[in-house]
Amino acid sequence: MKRFGFLFLGMLLFLAGALRDAGDQWIAGTQLPLILTETSTEVRDRNGALLRAYPVGTGIWRLAPGKVDPSFTAMLIRYEDKRFYSHSGVDGWALLRAVRQAIWNGRPVSGGSTLTMQVARLLEDGTTGRWAGKLRQMRVACALERRLSKDDILRLYLTHAPYGGNLEGVRAATVAWFGKEPHRLTPAQSALLVALPQRPEGRRPDRYPDQALAARDRVLHRMQKHNVLDGAEARAALSEPIPDAQRPFPQLAPHLADRVRLEQPEKATHVLTLDADLQRKVEGLVARASTAAGPQVSGALVVADHQTGEILASVGSPAYQSARQGFVDMTQAVRSPGSTLKPLIYGLGFDQGMIHPETLIHDGPVMFGRYAPRNFDGEFRGDVRVRDALQMSLNIPVVRLTNELGAARLVATLKQGGADPKLPSGVPGLAIALGGVGLNLQDLVQLYAGLANAGQGLNLHHRAGQSSIPVGRMISDVAAWHVSDILRGLAPPSGAQAHVLAYKTGTSYGHRDAWAIGYDGRHVIGVWLGRADGTPVPGAFGGDLAAPVLFEAFGRLKPDFDPLPAPPAATLILGAAELPLPLRRFRPRSAAFEAAQDAPQLLFPPDGARLALGMDPVMLKVRGGVAPFMVLTDGAAVATGLYQREFEVPNPGAGFSTFVVVDTAGRSDRVAVRLED
Predict the structure, then answer these.
(1) Is 442 within a domain?
(2) In terms of domains, do 25 and 123 share one?
(3) Where does the Penicillin-binding C-terminal domain lie (predicted)?
(4) Terminus of the chain with fewer CB atoms < 10 Å: N or C?
(5) Could you please report the per-residue DSSP string of 195-216?
(6) Among 584, 603, 619, which residue terminates a domain?
């Protein structure tokens, strides 16, 4: 009998071992579902804040969990699977409890699923109620436990757990329901997140607030019962309201986010140099300014640190929608820069020794072949200082200077500064000085960053971890300081602080583009306003529309301006009278063969005229020059000390005669005429 007992026990042990071996083989042969599922591509700011995320599949928000509040995971494990870290995928005690409760109550009361089994169901999108489905979950759960760590399995749950609608994963849930990342949650928020996956649609707080509240409170009561929460924590959590609506996912810097995703589509996370708080502030500013500017007016803005080359904010339009053609990224759109290139032209002139800020330059009618530039207001101001010509944004003086420098030199300097100019005809002409070239807003901000950086160009960048690569030097540090000093003296918009920002405005031909770009000792900001389709905005001027936005953007960036740098040691800071003679007045290279621009000019009689005067005196009319004047007729002085611009001189008689007028500086003009009786 004893022998039979030992034999029976041996058979039982053999059978148990065989079943275990068969079970091992059964689990080992399990074909696991795909574990590396797709998560939403994310674009984050310099501090890790979410700027924008892209849904996966058919519009599912599934964010990688990232850092999760440990109190939430502790609450989740205690409520859902308290033996999570000790079982091998299936909790036999939990299954026995679930069967016993179902028999006693005549219906299922609690589930026996472990977190690992729930992961298996989520990965395969399987059922929970059918025995075949439950058995499959057990098999996959055991296989997962053999191949993954507990932390890996928990991470899969935190990635795939459903939280209502198209939300999957705890991080998508916290962003949508609480507007925050999951690394710091209140007990009430954690409890709601524990309860939601059990019935994600039936407990949605925006649709079924009573069911959501009751489920959350059950979790809180159990956590208090098991000493996960003390009484005070539980009472405070029970009084906390639940969210009543889903929050939209962040969509900050959407145009730049689209660009970086297109540049590197294989990356799951893109970290940018932008600052989310600043981005949010300036997006609101551009939206308000565009609306105030009129129907269909768009706007764009770029903020950069000109010491590091980092782009801190980039606004491509007032809103990322079809209204105002908001899907068009106007930071990249090629437009006419208007007068914004003038500072760089004067900087080149300083470097070439042609001018100084106190040099006089003539603002008067001029022709370059068939090109006759005009000032914006159609007026002429005569001799003006270079400083005033730039601050008043006069057109004629800067075209004169460009003619001497050569338009090709300006284009080369733009490229040295990292810009990509687009020439309408392929050949640079003098009109480039007034905006006859295509540039985008980021190009212009980059050029002004170079001016602010003592004339040394640098590449602006938007990806975190990159360093700014210096490009070519545009102008010398001395020339850059002169430009900054002049632009700092430009009158600011009403109510704005003066002499703290070096800035320039611009308006393109036909009022299509309004610009304002400026910098202080640390940052540079560029603003554009106009219509995305290039149609005119009547009455739009850079000084009126864009300049106030520029100064307000600096106010949103920081409380105080960073001071502009001191002049380099080699800077020549002199008054006009102290300048070397060649720098006192700008004269083109051909000036040695031409009359001085302000020399006296005999307007009447015209040269070569035939005059029938009899014995009447001859009337002369003079323009320019400095009184008093002297008149010579056929080489003999006939009048001196003349202060008028119109006067009579004696008639020399019939025949050919030459009249010469000489001013007090010794400059002269002459005409030859034929007098007839």
Answers:
(1) yes
(2) no
(3) 592-672
(4) N
(5) HGGGSTTTT-TTT-HHHHHHHH
(6) 584
pLDDT of residue 7: 37
Does residue 540 contact residue 511 with C-beta atoms inside 8 Å?
yes
Residue range 20-31, pLDDT digits in tens: 545 566 676 676
In terms of domains, do 570 and 599 share one?
no
222 found inside a domain: yes
Classified as helix, coil or strand, 456 is strand
Query: Cα(239)–Cα(217) distance, rounded to whole angstroms?
Result: 10
**DSSP tag of 49:** -
Average pLDDT, the chain: 89
* Three-state secondary structure readout of 399-436: HHHHHHHCHHHHHHHHHHCCCCCECCCCCCCHHHHHCC
Q: Domain check: are 306 and 207 in the same one?
A: no
Model confidence at 133, pLDDT cuts 50, 70, 90, reads: low
Domain co-membership, 376 together with 437 = yes
The tokens for 319 are 């809103």
What's 360's domain CATH number?
Answer: 3.40.710.10
Examine the pLDDT at 617 and tell me if it is beyond 60.
yes
**Residue 230 DSSP label:** -
**Residues 118 and 82 both lie in one domain:** yes
163-197 pLDDT tens trace = 999 999 999 999 999 999 999 999 999 999 999 99
| CA–CA gap between residue 317 and residue 299 (Å, rounded) | 5
Q: What residues are annotated to the active site?
A: 80, 339
d(C-alpha 479, C-alpha 667), whole Å: 33
Distance CA 492, CA 501 (A): 9
> What's the pLDDT tens digit per position in 568-599?
999 999 998 898 888 999 988 766 555 566 78
Residues 356 and 453 grouped into a single domain:
yes
Decide if 40 is inside a domain: no
pLDDT at residue 552, as a whole number: 98
For CA atoms 547, 552, 556, 559, give the dihedral sign.
positive
* Structure-block tokens of residue 566: 């001191």
Strands 646-649, 618-623: pairing kind = antiparallel
The last residue of one of the domains, among 550, 584, 618, is 584
Q: List CB contacts of 352: < 8 A, sequence separation 6 or more.
A: 405
Q: How far is CA 524 from CA 339, 449, 501, in A?
A: 18, 6, 10
What would the two tokens of residue 647 be?
A: 């006067």
Query: Is residue 569 exposed (0-12), middle (13-18) or buried (19+ Cβ within 10 Å)?
Result: exposed
Residue found by looking up tokens 């091992």 in the block: 24
* Residue from 484, 449, 454, 483 nearest 468 by CA: 449
Residue 83 and residue 20 share a domain: no
Q: Is 637 inside any structural domain?
A: yes
Phi, psi of 314 (to 5 degrees): -145, 110
CB contact at 8 A, 475 and 453: no
Q: Are 174 and 192 in contact (CB under 8 A)?
A: no
**Same domain, residue pair 577 and 597:** no
Sheet (strand 618-623) strand order: 601-604, 618-623, 646-649
Q: Dihedral (C-alpha) 168, 171, 173, 175: value to the nearest 10 degrees?
A: -130
Query: Is-contact 349 310, C-beta < 8 A?
Result: no
Please state, in angstroms and rounded to a whole number, the distance separating the CA atoms of residues 520 and 306. Answer: 9
The single residue listed with the structure tokens 């007068």 is 339
Look up the domain containing 355 and give its range. 272-584
Residue 534 corresponds to which tokens in the numbers above? 């290039």
